Known about the structure:
The structure is a homodimer. The first copy, chain A, is an alpha/beta fold. In chain A, 38% of the residues lie in helices and 17% in strands. Chain A has helices at 27-34, 38-45, 55-68, 75-81, 101-113, 127-139, 185-198, 214-229, 246-259, 269-281, 316-333; strands at 86-91, 117-122, 144-154, 166-172, 179-183, 204-209, 239-242, 263-266, 291-293, 311-312, 342-345, 349-350. In chain A, the strands form 3 sheets. Chain A has a 6-stranded parallel β-sheet. In chain A, strand 1, helix 5 (101-113) and strand 2 form a beta-alpha-beta unit. The termini of chain A are far apart. The relative contact order of chain A is 0.11. Residues 1-23 and 74-82 of chain A have low confidence and may be disordered. Chains A and B meet through helix 4, helix 5, strand 2, helix 6 and helix 10 of A and helix 4, helix 5, strand 2, helix 6 and helix 10 of B.
Amino acid sequence: xxxxxxxxxxxxxxxxxxxxxxxxxxxxxxxxxxxxxxxxxxxxxxxxxxxxxxxxxxxxxxxxxxxxxxxxxxxxxxxxxxxxxxxxxxxxxxxxxxxxxxxxxxxxxxxxxxxxxxxxxxxxxxxxxxxxxxxxxxxxxxxxxxxxxxxxxxxxxxxxxxxxxxxxxxxxxxxxxxxxxxxxxxxxxxxxxxxxxxxxxxxxxxxxxxxxxxxxxxxxxxxxxxxxxxxxxxxxxxxxxxxxxxxxxxxxxxxxxxxxxxxxxxxxxxxxxxxxxxxxxxxxxxxxxxxxxxxxxxxxxxxxxxxxxxxxxxxxxxxxxxxxxxxxxxxxxxxxxxxxxxxxxxxxxxxxxxxxxxxxxxx
Amino acid sequence: xxxxxxxxxxxxxxxxxxxxxxxxxxxxxxxxxxxxxxxxxxxxxxxxxxxxxxxxxxxxxxxxxxxxxxxxxxxxxxxxxxxxxxxxxxxxxxxxxxxxxxxxxxxxxxxxxxxxxxxxxxxxxxxxxxxxxxxxxxxxxxxxxxxxxxxxxxxxxxxxxxxxxxxxxxxxxxxxxxxxxxxxxxxxxxxxxxxxxxxxxxxxxxxxxxxxxxxxxxxxxxxxxxxxxxxxxxxxxxxxxxxxxxxxxxxxxxxxxxxxxxxxxxxxxxxxxxxxxxxxxxxxxxxxxxxxxxxxxxxxxxxxxxxxxxxxxxxxxxxxxxxxxxxxxxxxxxxxxxxxxxxxxxxxxxxxxxxxxxxxxxx
Lengths: 363, 363
């Protein structure tokens, strides 16, 4: 617990008296308090025992440092080592939107295992803030930088990172050979459809997003591949498109119902929420009248829907862990890959009560 | 866009060739590339024009700096100025939980207005990470520190912050005189009840949280005060308690229904979600059979419920803005308040479709 301070009108009378909170304590202050010179203080702090400083002087200096709360600038350390135990984490919106925070959680956990701490800059897409933050990270000799986006899409790695170990997490740059770690949208799409197929469904709808992103292509491919593997013919009449949110799910409901499917793969959990509402408004029950699968396993939503929503996990936490691992590997081995590496991580199924098990003998 | 690199086996032959990404460029490298000495490079970088360096040399040095991508350690700047344009933002879970991210958003926005960038450390309650991050922030001479928690509760300001300008956001320390900015739980509780009272309701339930926190005391006070102001007698039989989540809302539903109230103030939106489910399971309609008010205005939930939930806004974004403002004020004025300041920010009502307007002539 912090101790109380009092506005200090007696400054100068007692060097050991605490300064007002907003003063920065300098080497000179420490030297004055210890009754010695700045160079002596510096020698003590750098553990230069060869400098033959008396034990009493050393003790006085250490006491002054402690009582004044002096923090040395990391300059000396930075100069000697060339880097610090920081990893810069640059993101657009992960820290401020309620979606992918687990990327930071996994990254920090893995960083800490290696004694590193993440310094996060959340730019909200402001390019100036991004440039300024990266410049500061480089000024402070971070070990490396994780560049991450709140949803999976393509980016351009900022030029300023050209000479710094960098790993992209949840995004990739097709024009750069920076290592990237992304979710495997295709495997995720497969997992979604397979939950329904394994439960005995054969007429399965797919509602894609209207937003252009890797998910739009990948999850659709996965859905089609899963059908193909199960010997189910694909049918354009069962493939729809809607806004990737609640309204989109609500809007597409009439078409879903007209199509005669028994189960539907929604682009994401929010779309599934809207579909739930629309079905309920029509007096229909999930999963009895319609089986529904979402995507994301979005915290606060999926598990808490009525009934809890079957969905696919976006492996945010694991993306964070893997990103830091790759970064530390590149730094340690000073390896530089002339060809880019993209690590795609599995998006596993999360089976809940929104899927009806079809008794095949009744079909 | 980043340009491609190739594993560099020809290092040393051409100083201007880009090094592999994971090498740190030092002053020595710049000096070698510019064909001059380290001290000359240093003088150029610190704009020491009195040092009489020829324009050609200056140009060579600047060119070498640019082509090698050299980033000076902030040491020189740190030494001269004593601080940087960083504000340290230490939090337990704001960046990784889907609840209070707007605190960071507001704080960064306000910081940027003043040319500052937030460096965020998200500790997830790990005391060692917290200590390490704070130590590093101090080492790097941050202007000051925002210490913030994902939900409003009491904390102990870490001792390490004793000599650094610090503001608490969304938390407070009763044993310290560090300035804090918190939500006004009592005004929020009043706002919730007043929405129902203004719509004509007189029998209003209050469901408190079982979790010990300022909200538990404050919102209840606000509810009682609103009733009192409206001339409605308080009634213990209409005051309940439940876990502050969906299950809690579901569990308390039978008692709410038995009490004969026409409206209910839930501790938070998640509890209201559970109450919605329970009422719907019984074939009841909101707001026709029961008016419901939540608290938080939690992104992804409140506005998207069916019907959209009336609630109270936790002013996360504004807390962030105010926190940074107070911090910069304390730094600029070097003011230190011997007595603590606590700024409580209003929690305004958000009126949506979950409240039935009672026609008083029918009562």
